[in-house]
Design brief:
The protein has two helices and no strands. With about 100 residues, it is mainly alpha-helical. The protein is flat, with a radius of gyration of 26 Å. The N and C termini lie far apart (about 75 Å).
Length: about 100
Amino acid sequence: MIGVTLLIISVLVILVWLLLEFKRLKHRIFALFIIFLILFVYFTGLFVFKDTTIDYKSVPGLVSASKVYFSWVLSISGNFKTITSNAVGLDWKGNVTTK
């Protein structure tokens, strides 16, 4: 009887510990996602705006910058779509030659 009670208590303790760790992991994953998103926007922004002069201190300048950046992001996603559709359409079977 004491063995079963100890087993149930152990399972409950492990379950509570796993739930807390999972919650912490979920926050860690979200934090890593935010860090990745910030780095992605920063480095792609450097690439997109390297030859462009944009006034970041005015609202029209920020609107112009956001239009340029999001049009670039949409063109990249369009390129991914084109590459993927071309890859799907390829003949991926090996070329077999017989003598």
